[in-house]
Amino acid sequence: MFDGLMIGLQSVASVQTISLIIVGTALGIIVGVIPGFSTTMGLVLALPFTFSLGSMDGLALMLGLMAGGLSGGLISAVLLGIPGTAAAVATVFDGHPMSENGEPGRALAIGTWASFLGGIIGALLLIFCMPLLSDAALAFGPWEFFSVILLGLTIIASLAGRELIKGLIAGILGLLIGCVGPDPVFGIARLSFNLPVLSNGIHYLAVLIGLFAYPQLVKAVEPEVLGRQFEMLNRDITFSNIQVLKDVWKNLRVLFVSSFIGAFFGALPGVGAASANIVAYDQAKKISPYKDKFGTGFAGGIIASESSNNALGGGSLIPAMALGIPGDAMTAVMLGALVLHGIQPGPMLIFEQAPLVYGIFVAYIIANVVMLLIQLYGVRLFVQITKIPNHHLASSIFVVCTVGAFSIQNHYTDIWIACLVGIGGYIFIKNGFPLAPIILGAILGPMAEVNFRRALITDPDWMLFFTRPLSGIFILCAILSLAYPIYKNWKLSRLKDNPAEIQVPEE
Which residue(s) pair with 182 in the sheet? Predict the structure, then answer.
């Protein structure tokens, strides 16, 4: 392990790679500060600009942006009471009251240190758990690969929430998008409708930009959103690091428990940052001896929220890199970045690309250190971004998105595809359809098809999918993963139709 980390350190030990980590982290914090602009959007915007970079440099930029984006949302959450990202929802509960109590600097510093320590814990879990998971997966054949990808596809049911039918429709649409273009085994054109622009398929990056960038830009300039935009007050944001570290030390138990919850939720496909954030906050309140102080500007509440959301980043990379299963939209983009640079995520990754994998570990740790330094000493600069009107930001980002779509293959077709997908994505959002299942279907669908056909070519006995132990376990987990949301939705609908069945606890 130590030798591997030394190899990884050599992989990132260049001025260019470190510079890209710093730039990516700063951009991630900026994205996190702006309410409505998610970390996923920032990753999508940055992805096309990694085309001309080497694998390690491109991934270093993306890792920095992810670390910065997960933490940056605390700035607007503390100072405005508006979470910059979904990962900072619970930060508002205590961060904003502490700011209103005259200690905005202390709240920001507590959140920053908690984010850093949570990120380091998540990175350490990534370093130790991914090799173990990869070792266990060495016995994988095409049957096991198909089964584990099938399990990943059932995440669509979890991502759909209560709108199960809409989520399944979105997932099927993603699978259809992945089927456009040449057949992966025989190269026969399909679903192209004899249109030259579709003969090579639909590039998933154009779909990513269309789904996660354009609809958010339109939402950001809607009248009701513009009407809620706040400007920063001229508050004193000075703080004492010594006092802040004392606050963290007093809540050390909360820090570790919340970090492990965040990492665990990150490794669970389809749960999401907002869920981990709120669950960690709730559990911290239960284990803390100061339960009554939560929600009043208590340091423990900020630590619980911020340590969990940054630990989630490391946890979410474990299944994405070791098994090729993205747990959410953010890790789906990271998975796309790996594929874009010719790297196939999966159990063999750490054996075939050991310097790159350990380089990713080291780069993620460095990104969290950079995030700590930038946020502690650059807060005054970043808070000024919240003063920029959304319509100015949206127009600038739209141009960047369009350039990014064109740069995918240097063809105008990808711009039109991104725009059309963006229009469809906006319509989906307005009608309650989740977007994440679309991109999961588009990325995992072709991978599932290839392994399914390889398995049948190797041995036409389809029962092997069930009789091979690991494959059978994954298929069973996939069935349970699909059945649970269906059962949960059925139970909720039953309670809704029969309110008398709802048990009211006794006083």
Answer: 189
d(CA 438, CA 202): 13
| CB neighbours of residue 461 within 10 Å | 11
Burial 21-45 (b: 16+ CB within 10 A, else e): bbbbbbbbbbbbbbbbbbbbbbbbb
pLDDT in tens, 132-171: 765 665 567 788 878 877 877 776 665 555 667 787 888 8
User: For 97-117, how does the pLDDT look when each residue is reduced to its tens digit (9 = 90+)?
Assistant: 888 787 888 888 888 999 999
Q: Which residues, at least 6 apart from 134, have a Cβ–Cβ distance to it below 8 Å? A: 322, 347, 348, 349, 350, 351
Residues 394-451 pLDDT 10s: 777 777 778 767 766 777 888 888 888 889 888 888 888 877 778 778 877 887 888 8
More confident residue, 359 or 395: 359
| 12-20, Cβ contacts within 8 angstroms, sequence gap of 24 or more | 12/56, 12/60, 12/359, 12/362, 12/363, 12/366, 16/57, 17/56, 17/57, 17/60, 17/363, 18/366, 20/53, 20/57, 20/60, 20/61, 20/64
Q: What is the pLDDT of residue 200?
A: 77
Higher pLDDT, 297 or 493: 297
Q: Helix 252-267 vs helix 241-250: angle between axes, to the nearest 10 degrees?
A: 70
3-state DSSP: the chain helix, strand, coil percent, rounded to 5? 75, 0, 25
> Are 413 and 65 contacting, i.e. CB atoms less than 8 angstroms apart?
no
Candidates 282, 271, 256, 277; CA nearest to 88 is 277
> Is residue 77 within 8 Å of residue 277, measured between CB atoms?
no
Q: How confident is the model at residue 270 (pLDDT cuts 50, 70, 90)?
A: low
- Burial letters 317-352, b for 16+ CB under 10 A, else e: bbbbbbbbbbbbbbbbbbbbbbebbebebbbebbee
Tokens found for residue 124: 């350490």
pLDDT at 408 (0 to 100): 64
What gap in Å lies between CA 125 and CA 112, rounded to an integer? 20
For residue 237, what pLDDT band results from cuts at 50, 70 and 90?
A: low
Report residue 415 CA to chain centroid gap: 24
Residues facing 190 on adjacent strands: 181
CA distance 167 to 149: 18
Beta bridge partners of 189: 182
Q: Give the pLDDT score at 382.
A: 65
Report in angstroms the alpha-carbon separations of 459 from 17, 144, 261. 45, 14, 42
Q: Are 383 and 33 in contact (CB under 8 A)?
A: yes
Amino acid at 237: I
Tokens representing 27 are 């951009």
Task: Give the helix/strand (H/E) hosting 396.
Answer: helix 390-407
Model confidence at 366, pLDDT cuts 50, 70, 90, reads: very high
pTM exceeding 0.85: no
Could you tell me which residues come within 8 angstroms of residue 169 by beta carbon, excluding any fewer than 6 positions away? 433
